[in-house]
Fold each of these.
Amino acid sequence: MKKFLVYICALVISLNVMGVDVSAATTSNPITYTYTVSKDTVYSGTEFTITLTFTGSADSVFLVLDTDSYQINEGYKIDLKSSSNPLTLHAKCIGSSKIIKTTIMKDGNPEPASQILINNIGSESSSGSSSPTDTSKYTPELVIENQEIPTANAGSDIDLALKLKNAGTYTAKNITVELIPPTDKDFSYETNTISLIDKIQQLKKTETAELNYSFLVKDSTPAKTYSCQLKYTYFNLYGDKVEKTQDIYIKVRKGFPSVDLRLSEVTNDPEIIKAGQKVQLSFLVNNNYGLSTVSALDVTLEGLGKGFTIVDGVNGRRISNLRPDAKGEKVTFDLFASSDLKKGSYPITVNLKYKDSSNAEKEVKKEIYLMVDSGNTDIAIRNIKAPTGQINASQPFNVSFDIVNTGEVKAEDLIVTVKGDEEIVPMSQNIQVINEMEVGATKQLTYKFQPTEEAKTKTHLLNIEIKGKDEDAFTTINQYVGVYVKAKKENSEGTSSKPIIIVDNFKIVSESTQSEITNAGENFDLTLYFKNTHDSKKVKNIKVSLGAEENTDTDKAKSGSVFTPVESSSTFFIKEIAPGQSIEKQLKIFTIPFAASKVHNLKLEIYYEYESDEKLLTETIKDAIPVTVIQPSSFITSDIKIPESMFVGEQTDIEFEISNTGRTSLDNFTVKIEGFGSTNSRTYLGNLETGRTNYYSNEIWLNEEGEVTGTLVFTYTKPDGKEEEVRKEFKTVGQAMDFGPSEGDMGMDMGEFDKMPGQEKKSNKTLIIIISSVAAVAVIVTIIIVRRKIKKKKEMNFDE
């Protein structure tokens, strides 16, 4: 008992001592101030200074000012330790209050509050002025601080968490903020609230508040950035109303639509459609990229009648329902290609009308392109044979050549014409018709001509022209051959005849192909052999001018001369050529990128001088060199998306577009898949015209586990008849299909590969009996232990 009283006394003494120390800490050395105001009276808008003189000290001292009627340039929380004493504040009257509340924070603790009194008249009208103060100029400025654009997927909710800040100098009160969703006709949304309005009681200078809005962006909303509006309504401290709007932006990304109907495995039989032929069009309609089942799906074709018609008279197929997890429904139409169809790609619109999960009728359209070959073929002129030496006037001669069908389609109704100038007349029929030519067939044609007696001495050009009966479907081919003719007068005069310069031979080598055929937009090397045909007279001061036919493109930027010399001018000089001799000249020529794929003529104008009867005479002759030009071929594909991993045996769609970005047709375009199993390992897409796009779709699957490399092989025929191959690799990882745990994994391996049904039931029955027995034993043991504890407890109570 004595020890207890001693402890109590010690505790009371300790508490008394501690209380004295706390009291001393809070009352010693307080911070106080006196102040003066630079103006006796202030009005709204008056600028003045307040000077404060402080006494007392502490480790940390701040002066906090609380006012809505005065703007303080130094701020509203001032560190006195780093400020001068006395402290001068620069103020401006912006309200009507006569008081500035002050609080001194000493070492983190507030001193008793005080205030600064100011003789505020409010407005100059109080001192005799008749004009009232415009208080509406004291306008708070509300803005949204968020910098990032809110983003949501179509078909999901968008939550807008916006931070509203009073960025102005004056207080805003009774604030109403209304969100007006995008008014763009493409934007579709739903909300569960009557209006999207937030209300805030008051925001002082630099204060912020949170605004939260939420609504559902429907899956039909296209992916792009939309503009919303925030409509503000609020008041300043004088009751002046402020209304303003601010634009904010939201971004909608492509989501997962509830319905996304697509066409795949599009095939037509036969692959190459001919005009006047029946064709069976088949495709799968699937909803694999959607989320809900569609019903009452009607599939019809549009755009018929302009080239294709339905054979059986039924333009429509009904699919009762189509689930997202279903592979798809195959739809087939029997069509007839009109006999007057020309070669090209023809669009067929597939109209899909259905009911969605809410039983609303919807409609979507897809396009399929059918390639038609109207019988066009690739024709080449080869093995041209014409006189290489001199032909006298009135001397008959033959021109022969081979016509070769280098395409993959039979050629029909070809019209072959050979014409010379007015001094070269045909001695046989100069127009011949080839009714048909099978693929790869060759036909030799021979024409007989004779120069007239008035024929001048020069190289006369003969034009070989091949036309199709249907000029729109067949590109006309022109090729020239030159024959040197000597005038009759010169033959009789002997030494008095004038010398003639001819292009005895020429050689063309393309820099890229190293052949006689050159690509548009590239250089080729041209070697010319000029020959003086006279037996005794030399020619001198020879000037050769190069010219070329103009490119006839309607685009002025693509027009101009087809050929341009490189690293030299279009005119060159040869000093002289001895009688009967030849001289060689090498040139480098550039072909403009927009030159058409055909034979173009490089024109030559040859001016020279010679002596006859002691007189110096001049002569100018013209010639032409045929140059075969082809356009380089190129194409691009859209993104080819392959999953990073696939289950072995699982089918995956591969879909992309192929666009001809070159300036020439890509004939017999074929896509082949290597390294993967596929529904169609080789797909023929026909001829892909310049600027056209074709669609490729196929199903692929893996046959093995691990990293697998597949290859897309694109092949097509170029204008020069050669086949081009482009290979594009893609990779994925094959995984084994997981069929769930086996019997051994479940602890039920019976050591046998097969069990009879009766044995399996017997095994299950035995297992049930064992489990029941164990449970019964456990219950009995528990009862025995509990009874023993109860008995022991009773014995202990009895002992007590």
Note: The longest helix spans residues 757-799.
Amino acid sequence: MIDDRTRRPTLLVGVGAFGRDVARAARGASLVALEIAVGEEGKPDGAALDPNAKDPYSPVVKRAEDALAALLDVGHYLGSSSPTDPRGPLCDILVVADLGEPSVAPLVAPLAAALASGLRRAFSAILRSGDGALVVCPLLFCPRTGDRAAMARAASSLADLSRQTASSARARLGGRVYLVEDQSGKYLLSRAEMVRSFAAFLSTLCLSQVRDDDRGVRRLVEDDGPPGTFATFACASLAFDHAALSRIAAARLGREILALLRAPVDPAALDIASLAPPLVPTQSRLDTELAEAEPLADLLGPPTIDVPPIEWDDDPETLLERKFGSLFRARAEATIGAFRDEVERFRMDKLAAALEQRGKVRLEGGERAIETSVAELVAERPTGHARALLVLRDARTRAKGYLDEVVRAIEAPELSPLPPSPLAEKLAALEEAISHRPRPRRMVVLGAALGLVSALLLSGVLVSSYRALLAPFPPFFDAVSALPSGRLRPFFTAPVPLLAGAAVSAYSTGYRLWKHRKRHHNWACEARDDLAQSIARHIREDLVGHYERRLHYARLLWVQRVLAHLLGRIEQTIAALEATRAALAAADRALHREEHEGERNLFSGGLLSSSVLHATIVGPDDVDAIYAEIRPPEPSAAAERWLRESLAERPWTEAPFAAHDDLVAFCHAELESFEKTSPFEEGKSALHKAAESSAKSFLRRLFLKLSPGLELAPKYAAEAPAPLRLLFAPPEARKLVDAALAEGGFEGAWDVRALSPDPDSILLVVARTGLPLESLALARASDDGDSAWTSQAAPPNPPGES
């Protein structure tokens, strides 16, 4: 694609505020704008023209040289010019100024002369000796409210400059001098209309086909008339800003997508209630996950203290001195103390380190679960971020409840002090039982004596009983008296009673002594068993339970830490989701502003007010119908695609689906492009119907009303030649334009040029050329002293041209 700015380099020099506004309004044209501030500090892309400086024009000429040098670069020229075009570049310098602005009128003529001579001197190899050419074309606005005398003097200076430099190849302007007033013979124009008219006329001059046309349209820029003459113009345009319409359509589609993304979600949905519990584990679940895989007793390995058995034949001295003496006590106490030291110094530290490792793993797993769940929820559907927000709010409520329970348990711990050892107490009870244990020898001696006494008593009882039965009144206590006679007398005669008493006494005494010894033996054994069980219970229940309670408290602290960390992570994620929703709301507001800005550009050409002479094809009533045709049938599918594409490159925490610029670019890709479609083509779409209606209305309204804005003197007005009426349209609009001309009977009044490369606009130009200074009503404002001022303000002859 050929760049017209390189093939036909055009430099717009906007002087003052009016020149700046025109330069900004004509940004779409194929030209390079240079803004000139009068008496002020120049901007980075402009220059300052100080009337009080010794050489006020050199900074402007230098900036113009730099801008034109960039356009004449060999890479740009060869890369963008036509291979079959042997001609050099035609450089146009368009100077736009408002003669009504303070200090501008006396500067225009010297500035034009300085630009013509300075640029030709700087690029003499191209513009003088070579195939190129340079034209300086001033386009000057003459407002009704300006100083008429000053504007007249400026026009006189330009006429004198044109006449003085007509024969100079270096200093001559070569271009027409346009004077345009904000009035015509039929209407008045506002400043905004003038800015748009100048911008539209500049756009017309920059059309490559217009500038290369062999039928004389090039003379709108080049002056082929007598020197010292002026020209004027009036311009109207009907444009289709496809970029603005695409901007509106993309903004509307973007707002529809954002509306789907911001759609409300029912907080009572069942799936939301089921998604929160897995994110926040309960206290019992966390305690189970943080607990050791094996029982604590197996991990601590408590010792076993062997308690000696009590044998039947053990005497108390043997038991108290050898089995349960001080050595046993010292050995048991040492074993228990060594176990406590081992657990306190080493094993509890290892268990705490393992608990910390499991806690950290649980922390990371909880964070990962929240991140994964939220990312999956956000990417699941357009309203995923809203669903994730509801899920996390439910999870936050659960986490706060669990955390309060854990905090209450921590504030009331079950950490009783280490219970004392029962060894001393149980040993004292065992010693008491052992001390009452009978001695075997003592039992033998005492048993024999007791048996003898018992035998004597029993024998006396037997004999006395025999006497009492056979002798009614025996001498009962007379042991030496004779026994009564009878058959049983031999059994009661000594030593038979004594033997019988001894037998009974031996059995009875032996049994009673055995029973007594057995009772004391069982007492000692029970005391021994109680000692063994107490020691084992003290080690496995008291000590191990004490450490179990300490580990449980440590686990509670980790449960609190995990829940607090999860709560903080949930709060952070909720804040990110709320920021995402805020970003979506901000993006919706930005798209709303984007839509309004597009409508302003579409309906008023980018200015703040609508224009009468510069209309738009698409009106406010046409946008809805056009958008309805290009809008995707299923915006939800577009929203899902946008969500997938935005999350494919960046995480949801950056809210990529709320990125305004990326969403607009996505919507542009989703919608039908207007860039390669001319609205003037035949068709039945809403855009083609709007273009046909707007074009016919525009042409009918302005065919006879558009007139150039420059007042002529009465004696010259009747003799002035008819103005040149040109209509520039794309080839696609030729049929529509011919039909409109035929309907109004204007076939011969307008010269239709269907050669515009811009498929989106129709331009109407009414130009009047060859106007001498004395034919202008403006020139009547000059007085007798103007000649002296003109000679003073006229620029000196360029070097080499005196």
Note: The CA atoms of residues 270 and 276 lie 11 Å apart.
Amino acid sequence: MAGLPPDLLVAALQRSRCLALVADATGQVVWFNDAWASAPAIDLLRGRPWRDWLTSHGQASPAPQVLSALAAREAFCAEIELRLSDGRAWWRRVEATPLGDGARFAGYLAIASDITALKQAEDSQRAMAARYRRVMESTHDGIWERNLRTNQSWYSPRYKEIMGFADHELPNDRNVMNARIHPDDMEAFTVPYERALREGGQWHYRVRVLHRDGSWRWLRCRARAWPDETGKPAILAGAVTDVTDEMDAVEALRRHRSQLEELVRERTARLEAARAEAERANRAKSLFLANMSHEIRTPLNGVLGMTELALRAATSATQRRYLELAQSSGASLRAIIDDILDFAKAEAGKLSLDEVEFDPGELMAVTVRSVLPQAHDKGLALHFDSRGPALRLLGDPVRVRQIATNLLSNALKFTVAGQVRFVVDVEGSPADATILRLEVSDTGMGMDEATLERVFHPFEQADPSVSRTVGGTGLGLSIVRSLCELMGGSVQARSEPGMGSTFEVRLPLRAAPTDAAEPADEPTVAGAWAWVVGAAPGDPLGERLMRLGWQVHSLAGLDQALAQADAGPPPGLVVVVHDAREALSEAALVGLRDRLSAGCDIVVLVPPHGSEETGSLAPERGQALGLKVYIAPLSPADLRQLTLGHQAPSAATPAQPPAIAATLPLARWQGARFLVVEDNAVNQLLAEEMLRLLGFQVEVVSGGQEALDHCERHPPDAVLMDIQMPGLDGLETTRRLRQAQAQGRLPPFPIIAATAHASESDRRACLRAGMDGYIAKPLDLRVMRSEIRRVLRLACGDDSDAPETRY
């Protein structure tokens, strides 16, 4: 700058973007330019010695090399860090030049530049390098890179360590590294590698490499091709992981799995063989049960049937007593056989369920009628109560009735005196979940806690010594529990010694769809009077009538009813309960009828076991006297029918006469021709005699082919068909008869099965073959009468249910 005017030099420095200052020989800053004046740290440095301007943050004095230069009055260059008031770092590079001529030192001219951004970039780069180093060391992966432009390769120390070498022991040579790849894995490496050279992208491969100790190590590799500005691959980089232990584990697992699969195949073969053997044994067991049922029931059918016929022909009290004992013993044997067969079916998983529509109240009333004779013989009162809405349910009525029968039989068996109470309750509505609740309580001996825990176990009884008195197999309650669980329900027992027992069953059953034309609510009467005459203490009949709106007046007997006839409000309904323990006075009934108004219904409630010999009132005799005769207990349908006739005219529905009070149920079919198809001579005689007692003409054939030939020559009005017969069995005979009817070669007539095969699957097989009804052997006259009546009514197009309908 020789020849440059001093003022022009000062002006240039003043406007320079560099930080310029002048310090005198004493170390004081005597001038700085505009750039310094606007520098962020000027307020911290203004007025302070130049040494402070040269001292970095955290230091007490300038750096040693700066101090040496200052002492020697030499030029120097230094990087100095200051901290601003907000804590930020501010870096500058200072180049200081001494001022003066050779003999005199005048100070320093210092030119500085802001290098804060450069320092921050360096710090960031160092942090990133440290971060990458930590990542590589933490992952234990080996890293490699190849520059396709320079054809130079680099392998990280960890890469070489995986193969057992230090960094300096293997060159960064691609050919050397590739030579250590197992020959069998070279294709797995080169194919994706060369594709990446052409197309770029990412790829994966797995190879074995030769370790320093001569073993082969498995590497899992991940790599990527990085493109240049033209989009072509320029850099290849990847990472490798030593997965030798993992591959060894996979191979061990594969061998173990192979061994397990072989073991499973062997065991599966054994299990298949065992299953086939179990199925064969199960089929044999099922066949054995079916044959046992048939073989035991067939002679038992003859014993019980002929005993019943002999009872009707007995001429002396001694004969009747002997025959009644024989009949009672046969009935007990039949109950034991039924329990054993049902238990065997439950154990074999052969119990099955139907889903049909049924009325729970009607079903349970019929069930009570079947055990009332047992209660009468023991001098016990059996009370029946039906509660809840009048819903029809979907379920298996046969199994529901079996549950109720077993509970009632158990209660009657272990109750010496007092009563048994049976309550059926429907909880819920058609729109909600519905529970059928059955509760049987008794005044028997009761049980303690230990007995309650095992009472549902097979072959268990409350007191083993009692079995010698009351008999039984101890299977009834076990069968109840099995059936409840099969239906998704439960059974519980409550009892105390000497206080009786209560058994409660809860079955979740769906409500059947309702007909909009049917009334939604129970019929009610507005305070009409009903008399209950002769009911036993605790009988819920009065409560059932009150739930329908009746005002109930209980009277001890007909004498009291006659005395009351002319006093007080007249009744609209009188129910006379007859328990068949003493003769019923027809004169008293007629007198009561004459003294009450014509609109009063007088109902005589007779037990199902009642007869003229026991002083009971026959239905036809009651009709002749102008009385209504119902079989005890009154079912919900009976009560609804009696109540409907006494509703107000605006709400009443025309009352239908009860079916049992009309002509005898089989009277309209008197003289009809029945064909009995039965191969057993005893059963032929028994069926023929029972059908004749019911008023039918009877013809008998002993086989299926004979039945076909007979029907071709003389078509019957109905057929009673045995199932298990030599040659053409009952099912195939029925199919051929139905085929002949469909072709018009035979007129239609009902076919009823009569068989010792008593399972539900046997019943379904009969119905599928084309049969209209089903009677299980041993034949019972009342059961036969009820089923024949039902089938004949259906054949005539009458599908209404009478109170004694059999389920």
Note: The chain has a mean pLDDT of 82.
Amino acid sequence: MSASDSSSRRRAANRALARFALRDLRGGLRFYGVFIACLVLGVMAIVGVDATSRAFREGLAQQGAVLLGGDLAFGRALGVPAEKEKAFLAARGRVGEVLSLRAMARRADAPASTLVEMKAVDSSYPLAGAVRTDPPLGAGRPFYDALALKDGAYGLFADPALGARLNVKIGDRLEIGAVQFALVGWLAGEPDSIGAIGFGSHVIVSDRALAETGLIVPGSLARLSLRLLLPPEASSDADLAAAQKAFTEAFPESGFEIRSRAEPSPQLSRNVERFAQFLSLIGLTALVCGGVGVGNSIRGLIDRKRKTLAILKALGATGGEAARFVLIQAMLVAAASAVVGAALGLALPKLLAFVLGASLPFPLAPSLDWRDGLSGMVFGLLTALAFAAAPLDRARALPVTTLLRETALGDFGPLRLRGGVVAGLAAAALFGFALLISSDRILTAQFGAAVLVSFALLYGVARAIMYFARRAPHGRSLPLRLAVANLHKPGALTPSFLISLGLGVTLLTALTGVERNLRADIGESLPKESPSFFFFDIQAAQAASFHDFLRKEAPDGTIAVAPMLRGRIVKVNGVPAEDVKAADKARWALEGDRGITFSAKVPDGSRLVEGEWWPQNYAGPPLVSMESGVAQGLNLRLGDSVTVNVLGRTLTARIANLRKVNWRSFNINFVLVFSPNAFAGAPFTSLMTLNLPERPDSTREAALLAEAAKNFPAVASVSIRETLETVDGLLGKLSVAIQSAASLAFVVSALVLSGALAAGQRARIYEAVVLKVLGATRGRLLSALALEFALLGAATAAFGLLAGTAAAALVARQVLDTSFHFFPAQAGAVALGAVTFAVALGLAGTWRVLGEKPGRWLRED
């Protein structure tokens, strides 16, 4: 036979197999239930996260001007007047001015006060977008008019949280500084507050009202923001870039941080991208875990179609042709499942926008992008091929006589070379594709390595359990003997159980361990010497009086004082801050204003790790001490220079030493500490902390804050207790989001185990029938099954707890740079949940075995 004849025969055979496979699928997909569910869920998770991330990026791009408050925003700490800059911008479009600061709001008729994030706006606000209020403003009424002076009080809009904190309602009077305000409405949405997370309620007042409060004096910790809205005929991206470039060239030393509508919040964008990537990896974990279910489903499919395969082989089909018959069916179903999963994932952003709407903390612009769906489908198909190859190749080698036996699956034997090669190539393609489309290839590579190691460990543990179960002594209890025998018999559930459920338990243990340690580190393990209160923006003329006030109100407390200014790092070794390649852990130091101080001695809570402190009366060129972690992230060493803009003026200092700072003590400390001569004659405010021997109860805390606000209205106060509660709430919301995504792994685990149980269902029924004939009762069989799944659940829980705890400890110590503590109660709950989950799911999947009548099966045999 010639080569062409052989090739024609193969093509004809493949066409015939394809027609036969399609005709066979017309009988229904009931044998593919787990297969379809695993792939649909995994693909949906990956595509949904990618589509939502893309919707967020497009939302930022489309609504950038609204989110920023203009086409361009120029921000810096309040200092020298910016009239020249404002006039320069006014020649290019509409200009608005916003001042932001923290202050204390107090009720006019009661001794209650709270910290507020105050925003003072001019008559142009908002340049872009609209402020949503409750109740809504009347049609055509300017927002600024509602802030005007009326009946002796200026108007004020506030976040609804202020109502709960001060027990106020619309129409009530509040005092901020030396001015009385009337609450005229609640803020339902601010166009320029994206990503704004503060420790106080947001309030908006007029610039005129702020001028009368007495809060703005030289050195005040306020931030100036100028917004520019270009005219419609000159608002292209090129015009935007030209305006930004012209401002930078005209005012190179102004110290303004410039943001454009193209990227209104770089930090928020990075955080959302990181979070989306993290969720994508969780989704990919679920998909890979579901791949085990795909393999089990193929085994179950071969079991149910073993007679069909035997007939094909008996009629002359080769083993390869019989395997291709099943492969064609499997890949057709996999393709359809991937399409369904991709469609559901692409619909997720629209669903989020419809259900959550305005409550989302970031904008979404849902759109259908074929790239998101295609990448998810590729992941699904490669996963299906990788996990289906091995069982298909094993079935390929089985003779007709073996396929006709009820226990065909138990005779599969070890992994064959051909199946291993195909599975390995598909897995490599899956990993390579993940690297290709990833925005962080290092993280993806680490994830791939972790999955590979986890699979190897789980499979090794499963084989070890089977080895020891095979050699375990035979006890007197029949259910226990049967349970132990089921752990190591041919076709045992042990590998599938360990791999699928083990990954889920490991993931959940790691996530909950990291979250629990974060909460403990921030709140529960707060050092005794940590301050109870922070008081900032204390003017120089009031510093001594306020110190005496604290000493009188809390004679048992310890007071710490430090001078404070606000400034921004504008250059590092002469390189503009926006051009510096900083590590992720240090990037925040280059964005926005930072607290800055000066000191003649090493601050408490710091220790020198490199260099020497300056002399007591140092009078040379400006020197600065930098926190060692930030310096490392910015690749700075002793002798390098840092340029900051403080109060509108630039100052360059040489790094004299590096400090290790214990931030978790919450004591006064700063990234940058300058030599005192650097700011000689500059106006500054004081920052004070009060540490009480015992944590104050809410009554004493409220009384102290109210008295401070009454006697020193310009001083802003922060309670550490309230701050930690706010942070804990944010961690709680993040934890819910992460654990909700991680729960997908458990859903997939349930599907995988269901597939494994279904794959071995016929063999289990056959064994149960034989045991019943030999006298076994339903109760004994039930006990044996319960013990089997309890043993598997216990082994899985033990591995998951060990591996998850190790992963959590690694993340806590290496990534979060914090201590790690083991929480037995949490570990016990996870272990108990895993065992319960295993027993419940195992019994639910094998309940049919107990009700089978021996007669029918014996007649069939």
Note: The radius of gyration is 34 Å.
